[in-house]
Amino acid sequence: MSTKKIIAALLSTALLGGLSACSGSDSKDAEGEKIRIGSTDSSKKAWQVFQDKAKEAGLPLEVVDFSDYSTPNQALDQGQLDVNQFQHLKFLASYNSSANATLTPIGSTEIVPLALFWKDHDSLDGIEGQEVVIPNDPTNQGRAINVLVQAKLLELRTPGLVTPTPADVDTDKSKVKITPVDAAQTTAAYGEGKPAIINNSFLDRAQIDPKSAVFADDPSSTEAEPYINVFVTRAEDKDNERYKKLVEIWHDQAVQDAVAEDSRGTSVPVDRPAEDLQKILDRLEADLKK
Questions:
Q1: Which GO cellular component terms, listed alphabetically, does the Swiss-Prot or TrEMBL entry include (predicted)?
Q2: Complete DSSP assignment for 218-237
């Protein structure tokens, strides 16, 4: 090969290499690398507004959507994500305990209350002595019992349990009886006129107005703390200012308006310091180890 052809080939290779580098640069912009954040509901309006606001603040996001609830924590733990935002503190505690992990909350978002519904009633008046139907799955049963504790309808043999079971209820001191059923059956019980605790995913299917609840858990109560939804990262990244800025952006009014629209007005914003969230998480993890 002639010297001219060799030089031409080298120049062509260099040019192709430069183009290849440019084509791979979509993971960056003028403000720096994109933040990879995991979600399970990125199609919701709040996430679209959140991405736009983050980009305006110089924090472009690469949102990775997951179809299940176990993978986002694994992906974060393994360094495939920078942050995730899909879970409450109780779920995070369960993951950390089972995986021997140290994933860390850096900010809160909201609580979606679990509520008590009673057809053709707008208050708790007359509920004493009634049979209240609650979901029997591990995620909701303990929380449902605590909703009734907060409503002063149930008393526990040992106050302050994070995840009480029906066996923990002091029936002699309680004002109602509870009947655990499959969560999907709570709406049927409601339709029959029984008071029922129904989670949000079944309200829509049964066309029950979430604002018709006669009682919901108080987001500022100790019993509700495990269900605060959070931004999470690895322990070594908990002080990363870019990630912490995402928490501030989530509480931008435009994002909050979209969250309210997505949840039909049922979500309650929660803005708790990371230190408080870590204390709650530590308590939950300690309870799981007992």
A1: membrane
A2: -TTSTTTGGG-EEEEE-GGG
HSE-CB for 251 with a 13 A CA cutoff: 16
The whole-angstrom separation of Cα 107 and Cα 74 is 19
pLDDT tens profile 6-22? 334 433 333 333 333 33
Give the range with max mean pLDDT: 208-222, 243-257, 260-274.
243-257
The full set of domains in the chain, from first to last, is 28-112+224-289 (3.40.190.10), 115-216 (3.40.190.10)
Mean pLDDT of 52-68: 96
pLDDT digit string (tens) for 24-50? 333 343 456 899 999 998 999 999 999
Which of 282, 201, 232 is closest to 88 using CA atoms?
232
Give the pair of three-digit tokens for residue 111. Answer: 């609580």
